[in-house]
Amino acid sequence: GESVGLHLPTLSVQEGDNSIINCAYSNSASDYFIWYKQESGKGPQFIIDIRSNMDKRQGQRVTVLLNKTVKHLSLQIAATQPGDSAVYFCAETSSQGAQKLVFGQGTRLTINP
Amino acid sequence: DTGVSQNPRHKITKRGQNVTFRCDPISEHNRLYWYRQTLGQGPEFLTYFQNEAQLEKSRLLSDRFSAERPKGSFSTLEIQRTEQGDSAMYLCASSYPGQIPSNYGYTFGSGTRLTVV
Could you tell me which chain A residue has the CA closest to the CA of B46? Predict the structure, then answer.
């Protein structure tokens, strides 16, 4: 079936730099997208979300961009910190019905001191 | 209420044995979801409940898997005759019905890691 995928499995950045994590989705029926952070031994933790009627949304140090034309999603983390080290997943769903999430493979973000 | 609670955190079992996991959702949430996550992959949807009704099951949920939510509160996921391929993290999440998976909605537990030897 259709699923969400990620372009890069790993990403290393210097502490203080900005990080960009990319994601491609394929289900045109999805109208809601979420980025999750997952640390070792823990469940996914919500970071930021965006509806399909938006193309950008900002949070604290994070920004999500949505390009529906090419079905692409990105997460930008500003001034990365050691605590940002984790695996990041994008997920898609429909805001109606079961709201089951379809996750991508994940990108491991490593922060170098 | 401190969030979604899952027990046990870890389970090691021999192939062919049955195992049961428990999920206690956030008390006000009447939707409960089960996902499975293998190493290096994103979680995959297994099934979900609204109150005590199991409304959808994934094709991943073979006949060896059964989930229940008898009183619309906690849920159990049982795997019969475990196989090595069942080794994974089993995640539970809960939400309000119709509540989009936002910071105040859909919440995941820490999961139960199953190892079948």
Answer: A100
